[in-house]
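Researcher: Next sequence.
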Amino acid sequence: MTSAAFDVLGIGNAIVDVISHSDEAFLGQHGLVKGSMMLVDEARAEALYAAMGPGVEVSGGSCGNTMAGVASFGGKGAYIGKVRNDQLGGVFGHDIKATGVSFETKSATEGPATARCLILVTPDAQRTMNTYLGACTGLGPTDIDAKRVASAQVTYVEGYLWDALAAKQAVLKAFEAAHAADRLVSITLSDSFCVHRYRDEFRALIRDKVDILFGNEAEIKSLYQVDTFEEAMEATRKEAKIAALTRSEKGSVVIKGSETWEVPAAPVAKVVDTTGAGDLYAAGFLFGFTHAKPLAECARLGGIAAAEIISHVGARPQQSLRSLI
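Model: Next structure:
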């Protein structure tokens, strides 16, 4: 394999997170399912935003968070995602470049506003997300530069992209370009609701195109429609080349063929906000993987990154992940 300019190229929904503390009563009052991610239209986003308490605005998006994590470990990352040429679009572009990630996707000059995710954090640290995709839905095949894809060891995408047809086509184009250049591709299942929407497509992708799969316990059980994690592991083993499955405080399990590695969670003094835990686990794992670390070590690095992210509000690292290893 030829040398790569980037360790990881991420493709995702470029979203600015608005994070606010909430209580169970607020969720009930607004018909929100705790711990879920719901897609909302602009009117619903505006109404929820008006009703929420004070919020912190930070650039997010699942894959954007992962790429910020890769950079925090000292990895070389690039990102493809669509924003509008508006205030939040400027915030997103500035933030991701400031982490050291290369971001060259052209901003939309018309159409929907930059995407935002309204995140309500309850006292148990669960996050309930309401996402207005906005400009994200404009991501399409023309935003994919095959040479840029070929310049990365691994192309990593979020399952959320399946919610927009053009974005899905962009991902498939990127996967083809990666494999044509003898590179690897990776996907995260993103959310059990997302899995429910695209179960058959995701399973076909995992069998035919994906080299590294990420998912949490709820997502992988939903994917294979089984009741236990053990059943999900065995089903995954039959279809995925490499799978890294997270289990919150139980740590993670990595599967490759008949081999299994169980890695404990990294200690964390206090869980403040679980937003981005899976995103940062993927960052640590992919950093390790692209630096030729054994799979168990990749999982350990993922756990370290996840522990850092759940110790504070927000889904981007607040201290150098490199300093933690």
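Model: The chain has a mean pLDDT of 94. The CA atoms of residues 59 and 324 lie 23 Å apart.
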